[in-house]
């Protein structure tokens, strides 16, 4: 039976958002991108946004004490299946999620080499309204909702390199955790979005 609780892990710009949204739509799962949620909070200058801002500006992960309650609250409101894009990123986040659920989630891991990730961020755009990911040349407006497409402030090169380091330091052990439990599937994330999606669907 297909799991109704999925988490997407992968380095920054590995395609978690693009693939995660598509899979969630196809399987009728609720979808949450923690990165998009944080960027929205930043833009709206909410309390969450102001607490998260210093970390996002430096390309660091937002502390577990902020992320865990926020995501568990969202998960608690879901009556059906869901897909999380960008959570868990750390071991304590993965453990907190497991403890809160009766059915432990399955993880899809997108693997993309660093050089390809650097090429991708150099030309990535995001819709300020619906947070769809786009590429330079697709603009100036979002093909899905007509919102404005903009580069992400955190895709500036130094910020991106920090996120890549955070990925190695904190996310790789989280991936190992899912692998040890036999709940991870590693997918080759290179190629066109359609090619990758063919593998993601499995
Ligand atoms: P990317 O995967 O390209 O880094 P995301 O949109 O998934 O983009 O996340 C952007 C940033 O939001 C992260 O670098 C991190 O600072 C913060 N963030 C998102 N999810 C989490 C999380 N689960 N724990 C800590 N920080 C997070």
Describe the structure.
The structure is a single chain. The chain is of the alpha/beta class and 202 residues long. A hairpin with a 5-residue loop joins strand 5 and strand 6 (133-135). Helices cover 49% and strands 16% of the residues. It has a single domain (5-114, 158-201), classed as Rossmann fold (3-Layer(aba) Sandwich). Helix 1 crosses helix 8 (193-201) and helix 4 packs parallel to helix 5. It has 8 helices and 8 strands, in the order E-H-E-H-H-H-E-H-E-H-E-E-E-H-E-H. It has helices at residues 16-27, 34-43, 47-58, 64-76, 91-100, 114-122, 157-180, 193-201; strands at 5-9, 30-33, 82-85, 106-111, 124-127, 133-135, 149-150, 184-188. Strands 2-3-1-4-8 form a 5-stranded parallel beta sheet, with helices on both faces. A 3-stranded antiparallel beta sheet has the order 6-5-7. It binds adenosine-5'-diphosphate. Residues 12-13, 16, 34-36, 38, 55-56, 60-62, 67, 86-87, 89, 93, 163 line the site of adenosine-5'-diphosphate.
């Amino acid at each position: 039976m297909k799991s109704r609780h999925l988490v997407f892990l992968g380095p920054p710009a590995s395609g978690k958002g693009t693939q995660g949204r598509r899979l969630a739509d196809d399987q009728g799962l609720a979808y949450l991108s923690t990165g998009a949620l944080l960027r929205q909070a930043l833009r709206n200058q909410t309390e969450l946004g102001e607490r998260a801002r210093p970390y996002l500006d430096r390309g660091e992960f937002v502390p577990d004490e902020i992320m865990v309650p926020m995501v568990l609250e969202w998960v608690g409101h879901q009556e059906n299946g869901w897909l999380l894009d960008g959570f868990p990123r750390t071991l304590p986040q993965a453990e907190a999620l497991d403890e809160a659920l009766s059915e432990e989630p399955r993880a899809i891991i997108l693997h993309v080499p660093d050089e390809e990730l650097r090429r991708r961020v150099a030309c990535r755009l995001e819709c300020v309204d619906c947070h769809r990911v786009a590429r330079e040349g697709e603009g100036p407006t979002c093909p899905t909702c007509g919102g404005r497409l903009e580069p992400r402030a955190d895709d500036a090169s130094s910020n991106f390199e920090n996120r890549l380091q955070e990925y190695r330091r904190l996310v790789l052990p989280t991936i190992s955790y899912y692998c040890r439990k036999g709940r991870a599937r590693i997918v080759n994330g290179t190629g066109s979005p359609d090619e990758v999606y063919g593998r993601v669907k499995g």
